[in-house]
Design goal:
Blueprint: E1 2-6, H1 10-26, E2 30-35, H2 41-46, E3 50-53, H3 63-80, E4 84-88, H4 90-102, E5 107-111, H5 116-119, H6 123-135, E6 141-144, H7 147-155, E7 164-166, E8 189-193, H8 202-214, E9 220-224, H9 237-245, E10 250-251, H10 258-263, E11 267-270, H11 279-286, E12 291-294, E13 309-312, H12 317-329, H13 332-349, H14 352-370
Parallel strand pairs: 1-2, 1-4, 2-3, 4-5, 5-6, 6-7, 8-9, 8-11, 9-10, 11-12, 12-13
Helix pairs in contact: 1-14, 3-4, 4-6, 8-12, 11-13
């Protein structure tokens, strides 16, 4: 079977879907990947994928750009004649599904997160909701990354509940992200891993740090992630540089070796406004780190309050600071137990093999329907 995997980033495919690709290839399937070239096409080709580069305006709402994306995908599907297409992220889910439907190609879609079109109510979000409603008449199955996202789509009548299922995010390679014996740092170190967007709670993180500093609390506060100012959703580099100059954070940029950074931290946190299931927290959990996350869909799936970390209120720097202070004051034995509990959750609920198995089942259903 020829399978197309379509996402808005080749980095995303390589970092989050490698296990799935390897499993599908082991099963004898031919894999064609479709995504912009953001430096990871060669990595995908080394995995044995054939790749098509596309242009995609991830955050914009220009109808001409979206029509161009639809045309690109239609031409690729015409050329490749895949047996099934796996779509991820908003625009491939919508425009890729329309293209596949015209050619009567089965699709399996994955709503990896709701994004800004569900966080902000405006004309763009209303258009996106309607496009989802039209597009999601066609897939064989639509995966969601948490129950609340699925319930929202069903409640808004964007999808038929009969074709939906829930995955534990993109899963995590528990054999790669493993705990190591580490001691609490002399200076307690927090790590936030995320694209530097307002919706990730970056400003709340900064304000929480200011509150802790005002109380005389000393710690290291790291920020790791890409600065992305497209469509006005990202925080500019000048602001990040100002926070560094103020002595609030250390900005670590981006890295291909996130494991070593997580390993050197004491606690990984994410004060995001909403997520699918955040991969960064799954990786931290698998490595046995205590976690702080906002009590919102997706984030709260990774944290059991008091068991493997703490939940905080969304958009509330004071509560975030209180949970961070509580984490800092925990003794080494408590931190170690929280880390062990994180690892336990990763093994039981977030192993990527759970995701791979669900996809294998979905593909088996598609194959059966084709016969």
């Amino acid at each position: 079977m020829k399978i197309c995997i379509v996402i808005n980033s080749s980095w995303n495919i390589y970092n989050f879907r490698t296990g799935l690709i390897q499993s599908l290839k082991k099963g004898g399937h031919e894999i064609v990947t479709v995504a912009p070239d953001d430096g990871y096409v060669s990595h995908l080709e080394k995995l044995g994928c054939r790749h098509h580069v596309i242009d995609i305006d991830n955050k914009g709402s220009n109808p001409f750009n979206d029509c161009w994306l639809f045309a690109q995908l239609l031409l690729i599907y015409l050329k490749e004649k895949p047996d099934v297409v796996l779509h991820y992220t908003i625009k491939p889910n919508i425009y890729g599904t329309f293209a596949a439907a015209i050619l009567k190609i089965p699709t399996i879609n994955n709503v990896t997160g709701l994004g800004t079109v569900f966080l902000h109510q405006n004309i763009t979000s209303r258009i996106a909701h309607q496009l989802y409603r039209w597009a999601f008449r066609f897939p064989q199955i639509v995966f969601f990354q948490n129950e609340e996202d699925r319930d929202l789509f069903v409640r808004m009548k964007l999808v038929n509940p009969a074709i939906t299922d829930v995955l534990p995010g993109s899963g995590v390679d528990v054999q790669k992200f493993v705990p190591t014996e580490t001691q609490k740092n002399t200076i307690f170190t927090f790590l936030l891993i995320a694209r530097v967007l307002y919706d990730k709670g970056i400003l709340e993180y900064i304000e929480a740090i200011r509150l802790l500093r005002a109380k005389g609390i000393q710690a290291k506060f790291w920020l790791l992630g890409k600065i992305d100012t497209d469509a006005g959703l990202g925080i500019p580099l000048e602001a990040v540089a100002a926070w560094e100059a103020e002595g609030l954070i250390e900005y670590l940029g981006t890295t291909d070796d996130v494991i070593s950074v997580i390993r050197r931290s004491d606690c990984v946190l994410l004060p995001s406004y909403r997520e699918g299931t955040p991969r960064t927290l799954l990786e931290a959990a698998s490595m046995g780190k205590p976690i702080i996350a906002t009590d919102v869909p997706g984030c709260r799936d990774t944290v059991q309050h008091g068991f493997n970390g703490f939940l905080c209120k969304v958009k509330d720097p004071a509560d975030l600071a209180a949970q961070m202070e509580k984490m800092m004051q925990a003794d080494e034995a408590t931190l170690r137990q929280m880390g062990n509990n994180s690892r336990k959750l990763a093994l039981e609920r977030f192993d990527q093999n759970i995701v791979i198995y669900k996809y294998q089942q979905a593909l088996a259903t598609v194959i059966a329907d084709m016969q």
